Amino acid sequence: MLDIQGVILNPLRLGITEAWSRLPVYIRRPNKERVETTHQIIGDAYKAPFGFSPATVEPGASNGGEWQMCSCEIIESLSPVDGKLISSTRAASRAEYDAIVESALIGAREWRQWPAPKRGEIIRLLGQALRERKAELGSLVSYEMGKSLQEGLGEVQEMIDICDFAVGLSRQLHGITMHSERPEHRMYEQWHPMGVVGVISAFNFPVAVWCWNAALAWVCGNSVLWKPSEKAPLCGIACQRIVAGVFANNGVPDGVACLVNGGREVGEWMGADERIPVVSATGSTRMGKSIAVSVGQRLGRSILELGGNNAIIITEKADLDMALMGCVFGAVGTAGQRCTSTRRLIIHASIYDVFKQRIQKAYGQLRVGNPLDERNHVGPLIDRGAVAQYEQALRLAAEQGGRTLVEGGVLEGPGYESRCYVKPAIIEATPEMSIVQEETFAPILYLLRYEGGLADAIAIQNGVRQGLSSAIMSLDLREAELFLGSNGSDCGIANVNIGTSGAEIGGAFGGEKETGGGRESGSDAWKAYMRRQTNTINFGRKLPLAQGIRFDLN
Known about the structure:
- By secondary structure, the protein is an alpha/beta fold.
- It contains 17 helices and 26 strands.
- The strands form seven sheets. It has a seven-stranded mixed β-sheet, sandwiched between helices. It has a seven-stranded mixed β-sheet with strand order 15-18-19-14-13-21-22, with helices on both faces. Strands 1-5-4 form a three-stranded mixed β-sheet, with helices on one face.
- The longest helix has 21 residues, at 149-169.
- The radius of gyration is 25 Å and the shape is globular.
């Protein structure tokens, strides 16, 4: 692995802490000069620019032009960093939700008449606004969700990147032309907006995943209705304010960018709402199955990005130094709360003991604490409910025969007042253990041994219900190509000599099986937000029928 100076990092010689600190800026913590001002940055970010205060209750819904003080239960946003109340909002009632949807319908009808490149210009201006507010929004993401400041800034960078992608896309929403079997006929296909696109996002990427969907949906001519995670509602409100400012300054109609806060019931309304032809949902497999049923019953379209039980295969031909860094960051980055976090290591028997000792030593150097401090590697889980799930997974692993290599547990005392900080754990396990078959959204890593050839490792990797991200560590070309081939990984993402996390926006993001089958972000994912239309034009003087059918009239 190279740092930004091009120096090869050897974590075994440098130590995990020093090697971590020299990772590229999109992974490592902020530089030393910023540490002293981190807490001030956070204070400025969530209190001043966005106006959030523990004493206020924020409006819960918006159609871009107007904010609505909703009437249902209060949603409090407590920071997992220190347990303090940041601010609150209110959930929308059904009537308030319906009013926002009607506004989205009206906005969509006008917005779709704008030329796509003009829509792209608006998204370019949004990207510029995000660049200007990157520090503030990234700081809020970190404080409300609990990821490191550098990861919070990186999440906003993903928003900027997808805006750039969408700008170019606005001039490339292309169909194809086909030759007709009939003389003096032409056939082609074109793509049209769907109308209102619903987006349900999760807490772990509280702004980026929404923007993956929204930026593409907007340049495709749709309006967007967003339900942010109830665990990170202020990130949604902050983004809505940024978008609303850009749209208002450029004449974009109300209703093109809509926000509705609330709990599970809002997602259920969206899933069953025939006015919303496309619903993109990110979250648990349980939630995704519910959305799939409700959208499917009305023959709507769903884009599902759900659970992942991601594995890295480490063959006997792997570069173990490279593998170590990929595995450690993949397992503990964002406290194991990425959908692409590494959950399983499948290690060849010939190197199993050696690599096990190395990763145990690396875990011994990890520091858990305030994610706004660059000296810490691991921040908190999102809330105490997540902590309870982590503790349950550890108990089940022990009951099912798992052997603890690095002990987990909940941290207490000064600096851990939120009671959301846990120790990254490593469990020696076997593939058939039921807890290994499940996704636990926490820093728990299972070590699995495989004998024989690579096909055996691939079988273990594929032997779970989820199919999001996967990776192989090997310097052997044949092994890499087997892993990437049709007999290899069954996941939507398959990497060679990098970890399972850290996808770029240029590729389509998503997975198979219980991960949901949806694709977001790059490549041709834009087609999910449009409807395809095939056109046949007769420019001749006769009307021949296809397939040589004759239908004569006197």
